[in-house]
Amino acid sequence: MSLDRRLAEIAREFPEWTIWRSDAGRWWATRHHPLSSAQRAAGCAMTIDADEPDGLRELLREQESRAADP
């Protein structure tokens, strides 16, 4: 699967995030909106990164869960 297709799939799955791959080959995601103090206290991050797309998806799911709990 092409890089562009993987990026597009993750972006569709997580529309509240901007997804990209760095020149170094790491996969990144940054939230579109600032975090509340409760979300920060729950361990939410504005930007996350992973070695591969599946790892990024896993981290995004974890972040979405943390953001929903506070």
Structure described in brief:
46% of the residues lie in helices and 20% in strands.
Structure report:
The chain has three helices and three strands; from the N terminus they run H-E-E-H-E-H. The protein is of the alpha+beta class and 70 residues long. A three-stranded antiparallel beta sheet has the order 1-2-3. Strand 1 and strand 2 form a beta hairpin.
Helix-strand layout with pairing:
Layout lengths: L2 H11 L3 E5 L5 E5 L5 H5 L5 E4 L2 H16 L2
Antiparallel strand pairs: 1-2, 2-3
Looking at this protein, list some descriptive labels.
70 residues; 3 strands; alpha+beta; single chain
Radius of gyration, in angstroms, nearest whole number: 12 Å
Q: Name the structural class.
A: alpha+beta
Number of strands: 3
Unreliable runs: none
Which geometry do the CA atoms define? elongated
Main β sheet profile: 3 strands, antiparallel
- In round numbers, the mean pLDDT is 94
User: How far apart lie the N and C ends?
Assistant: 36 Å
Strand content: 15-25%
Please estimate the helix content. 40-55%
Number of DSSP helices? 3
